[in-house]
Amino acid sequence: MSNLFSLIGNTPLLDISDLSDNPAVQVFGKLEGQNPGGSVKDRAALSMVLGAWERGDLDGGKSIVEATSGNTGIAMAMICAKLRIPITLVLPENATKERVSTMRAYGAEVILTPAEKTIEYSREVAQEMHDSGDYFQLNQFANDDNWKAHYRTTGPEIWEQTDGQVTHFVSSMGTTGTITGTGRYLHEQNPDVKIVGVQPTDGSRIPGIRRWSPAFLPKIYDPTVVNQKIDVSQEEAITTMRRLAREAGVFAGMSSGGSTAAALRLAEQLDEGVVVCIICDRGDRYLSGGHY
After folding, report:
1. 177 appears as a binding residue in the annotation
2. Do 218 and 107 share a structural domain?
3. Rounded to whole angstroms, how far apart are CA atoms 29 and 17?
4. Residue 24 maps to which CATH number?
């Protein structure tokens, strides 16, 4: 018998090489939508909430407050529901209704901020609430428990699932926790593994993939871990997201389309290799966006 938290992690690695035109390279997707909260963010959320709980940051009945674009908020709402911790989530008003409804289903309070001000303004609001003294902000962008979750779990899983044969790891860059923690672990096992970050092209809006302004660059980001960056357009992310569903039977979101697009583009450039990309969530929370 399993408890909720034991179901987080140990997600499957799926061979999606048939999406690539290069038969000499294997391409795998790590299916993070199999986590109970439906995304890779379950890992970091569990680590951050339990870390705050154990350190006494929530003593005195403080509520958690967090700025999020979606998946982290859903994961935190799920975990806080289990632990009976009140939580308020701050996110831009253009978040899909599925994401907002899911957060509220778990009992979270949701504050919507103007879409044109982006998540950077949501982060400012969350910080102000933290500074008031009534809330504790987990601050996924500066919380070491974020990347450590992936150092402890995602990296070791990929290493074991590929029998140590992984040559390239591809991850969308949002809070950068996934790429930082996983990259550090894989580099410790084999310094020759290439860690590849995915960013949006200028003007592209891809939920879960960011190009931060210097003032808002996540403090947990370690540029020495990332060997290469690939820019992906919104159109390419959507096209690849649809290919995942219609050709591989994998129903995922736009950031997963972005990371897979980068992995497939990378595979075209290699003579041989084993490429692993993060398919970070499920597609059901994006249906109202109309991209399918």
Report:
1. yes
2. no
3. 9
4. 3.40.50.1100
What are 241-252's pLDDT values in tens digits? 999 999 999 999
Q: Check the annotation: does 224 bind a ligand.
A: no
DSSP class of 266: H
User: What is the residue whose two structure tokens read 């982060």?
Assistant: 123
Q: Under the phi-then-psi rule, with left for phi > 0, alpha for psi from -120 to 50, and beta for the rest, what region is 11?
A: beta
Place of tokens 């672990």: 185
Identify the three-state secondary structure at position 120: helix
Query: With 70 as the cut, is the pLDDT of residue 168 above it?
Result: yes
For residues 29, 147, 94, 239, the Cα torsion angle rounded to the nearest 10 degrees is -20
What is the pTM assigned to this prediction?
Answer: 0.93
What is the β-pairing status of strands 168-172 and 135-137? Answer: unpaired
Residue 144 lies in a domain: no
Query: Annotated binding residue at 2?
Result: no
Active site residues: 41, 255
In angstroms, the Cα distances linking 199 to 126, 225, 226, 232, 248 are: 24, 15, 12, 6, 23
- Count of CB atoms within 10 A of residue 213's CB? 9
Question: Is 94 flagged in the annotation as binding?
Answer: no
**174 annotated as belonging to a binding site for a ligand:** yes
Q: Select from 112, 106, 64 the least CA-distant residue to 88.
A: 64
